[in-house]
Amino acid sequence: MSIDSTKSRGRKKKHRTATVTRAPKSTIKRVAPTVEARELSERAWLIAAISIMVVAAFLRLYHLELVPLHHDEGVNGNFLVRLVREGVYNYDPKNYHGPTLYYFSAIIPWTMRFLSSVHILDQSAQNTYGLTTFNIRLVTSLFGVATIWLVLLLRRRLGSIGSLSAAALLAVSPGAVYLSRYFIHESLFVFFTLGLVVASLRYWEERQPVYLILAAASAALLFATKETFIITAPVLLIAVVSTHLYPWLKKSRSARRKDPLTERLRQAVDRLGGPANLAMWSLVAVAVFVAVSVLFYSSFFKNWPQGVYDSLRTFLVWTKTGQEQHAKDWWTYIIKWLPKQESPVFLLGIIGAAIVVWKPANAFALFSALWALGLIAAYSYVPYKTPWLMLNFLVPLALIGGYAIEWIYQELGDLRLMMTIGVVAVCINLYQSIGLNFFHYDNNDDYYVYVYVHTQRETVKLVDEIARIAKGIGKGKESDVGITIVAPEYWPLPWYFRDYNHVGYYGQMATSGEPMIIAADTVKQRTEMQERFGSNYQQVPSGLNPEGNFRLRPGVDLLLYVRRDLVGP
Q: Per residue in 116-150, pLDDT tens?
């Protein structure tokens, strides 16, 4: 993909001049020095970039245990617990996403267990395996921070101000922060997507095969993270082809005849080393893609070949899921969700896309616009819609939004307007991000788009109450205190009870003699509890509401019962 300056060629500006360096037609166009690139020193850019990274890291890492685990986080945590403690993980295409999340997350507890075994860490680290809420969310948070770093690597493509603006918008985006603090696959998926783009661009620029190999590895990890690879990969490919076709199609017919596509393709192949060299390294890249994919889906050959077979079968399963579950109107993303909670990124993305479509002077900006448009169109077409899928197109929207801010300064020459728009956009995002992530994180009102049937903070009170009771009756062996769960819905409780040795998940009324029982606050289970256990168990009121129950999530309330002989009259 060729690179054009973010500054239009030959345009005169008041009080400013810029020399544009033109490269031979047979070589790639290099970015011409831009006005702001000369005015913004390397030191200033570096300080700004580091500041953005620090803010991004703080928002993603501060108080990671604050938000109770979502239902999906509990399920993912259950997989991780088994992988870490038993060394077992088998990919299941029917219900769950790819294996990368679990293997990358297992690195921390495995490392802590090793360090404790050689007495570098306290022995308790080996006993708990380092499986804490902070540790599991640390992995996704770090991938979220690393995504900001990848955006900053696009400085040559977006300009200094454009890359800083894009990174800042993404750093404080309410959704990007919220979902980075979630133990789900999205943060990894988006990082590998952008990694694929950045590595491919570097290969085109520098013609070093190592970048092609990195691109292949990123693509494989993307595939091994989530089945929506089947959407992202074609969109990226179509965006690349369209980026080259669009400016060519805007030319007159005679100009197109003088510059045929076949000649452009030949020049591109020659630039990458010629047909033989390109074919050889392409085969190496394909081998890397296959090898990495097989390693992860086969659970490093512990589930061979079933895991690899299931990695392909998942697309048939996902096609059905995408039509039936979480179905919403096609306009949900563009009319309801994005304008409500991502308005700065969304509006700047629209402005940037309009600018680059009107005047495609920057190939990467055009690619980013087509990338964002393609993903939004694809995910809008599919009936399945959840807020975390928006993270996929927040990244290209931030890139094209950064380009819009760069264009305002370079083309209009208005520093005050550029600063005003940038600061206002970042401040709005930051305000919304702080409110969402640290105050309203479990508020399931329609305004808080990303809070999607989220676990209520009352669930943490339930877990704390059970720990208090277990401590009182366990006498130093709290983990051996038994708990029977008869409520039909109970996730993410298995994560919170991961260190209890005797927890039964029945999903319906069952006989029990355990010290504690958790039931659903429904007429049916209240009646069954009274009939079966009324004389032997008493309800432990939550103290949070008149009904004495614990809110798990909207529409799901739980009741806690304890054996009377353990608590007295």
A: 777 776 655 555 568 999 999 999 999 999 999 99
Only one residue has tokens 């005679």, namely 254
Chain length of the chain: 569
Q: How far apart (Å, rounded) are the C-alpha atoms in residues 416 and 271?
A: 42
CA distance 37 to 30: 14
Place of tokens 């809070």: 451
DSSP 337: I
Closest by CA position to 229, among listed 296, 299, 171: 296
- Specify whether the backbone of 521 is left (phi greater than 0), alpha (psi in -120 to 50) or beta: beta
β partners of residue 96: none
Residue for token pair 């685990």: 69
Residue 221 phi, psi dihedral angles, 5° rounding: -65, -35
How much is the mean pLDDT over the chain? 88
| pLDDT on residue 410 | 86
Per-residue model confidence as pLDDT tens digits over 286-331:
999 999 999 999 999 999 999 999 998 888 776 666 556 778 999 9
Which helix (H) or strand (E) segment holds residue 553: the answer is strand 550-553
Judged by DSSP in three states, 92 sits in: coil
CB 395 within 8 A of CB 190: yes
What is the pairing mode between strands 556-563 and 503-505? unpaired
| Residue-wise pLDDT tens digits, 351-384 | 999 999 999 999 999 999 999 999 999 999 999 8
CB 561 within 8 A of CB 539: yes
**Residue 184 contacts residue 101 (beta carbons within 8 Å):** yes
pLDDT digits (tens, 9 = 90+) for 522-567: 999 999 999 999 889 999 988 777 778 999 999 999 999 999 988 7
The pairing of beta strand 550-553 with beta strand 556-563: antiparallel
In angstroms, the CA 442 to CA 171 distance is: 21
Q: CA-to-CA distance for 168 and 508, rounded, in angstroms? A: 49
Q: With contact defined as beta carbons under 8 Å apart, do 451 and 441 qualify? A: yes
Tell me how far apart the alpha carbons of residues 566 and 212 are, in angstroms, rounded to a whole number: 65
393, 379 in Cβ contact below 8 A?
Answer: yes
How buried is residue 482: exposed, middle or buried, by Cβ count under 10 Å (0-12/13-18/19+)? middle
Q: Rg for the chain (alpha carbons), in Å?
A: 27
**Which two tokens mark 441?**
């994180």
Phi, psi (degrees; rounded to nearest 5) at 448: -90, 85
Contact 536, 503 (CB under 8 A): no
> What is the distance between the terminal CA atoms of the chain, rounded to a whole angstrom?
77
Global model pTM greater than 0.85: yes
Q: Which residues pair with 484 in a beta bridge?
A: 504, 517
Q: Considering only CA atoms, which of 159, 147, 39 is closest in space to residue 402?
A: 159
Closest CA to 171 of 155, 192, 147: 147
Element (H, E) at 306: helix 306-324
Separation of alpha carbons 49 and 57, rounded Å: 12
Tokens of 71: 């239902």
- Which residues does 545 contact at the CB level (< 8 Å), separation at least 6? 551
| 41-65 core/surface letters (b: 16 or more CB in 10 A; e: else) | eeeebeebbeebbebbbebbbeebe
